[in-house]
Please model this.
Amino acid sequence: MLREANKLIRVEDVMGTLGVDRKTAAKTLARWYSQRWLQRVGHGLYTAIPLDARAMEQVLDDPWILVPSLFETAYIGGWTAAEYWDLTEQIFRDILVFTTKPIRKRRHDVHGITFLLRKIAAQDFFGTRSVWRGQIKVQISDTHRTMIDMLADPAVGGGIRHVTDCLTAYLRLKDANTKTLIEYGERLGNGAVFKRLGFIAETLADQQSLADMCRSRLTKGNAKLDPNQDCPRLVTAWRLWIPETWTRPQSQKDKS
Model:
């Protein structure tokens, strides 16, 4: 059964592998679960418990494989994707997932594994790559979408200073593409992206052209550089409220 179903087992897997009806398959799964051979990780979804992990709460060596089954149309993004693409050396314990599935709570705990969920519209599901984890295909945001998501909501990137570090690392990549960044930002339709991206780009060496592309796309209204921080100072050139201690280039005009 484990050989055929890989790491995740459903009633349908038991039916197909053992050639039994649904009722018998369900009873078989229930028996294996009661005998502690299996651990339930979702509705009708099980995984095998390793023999050396019977007393441990976390039984999956790769929690990414749960994402397609638990969250349906979803992709791994934010700081988790930043780690995967080597945009950061920081290690985040929780796994960030963007899903089109309605969610009742943002935190989803599965036997010692914490998934933090962000709801997105179906039309905003773009800019992803497929990665294989064993025999299970998982979607993850590509490097460009990872940056745009973190600029749209710095919280999913661990805060704006960490997002800035990730952007610096991104711009050093061989496949970095500022035109793709702009394209993704326009497609997502979040005006704060260009305010944050342009403001940060202007502080970086050799990124004036990126800043100029963002400046031409500024929307009305003011946004915060980081919504989770106190931002008392307004940079009028970027229509952006920033923290008092943020380092700014001398050319920017700002006011309290």
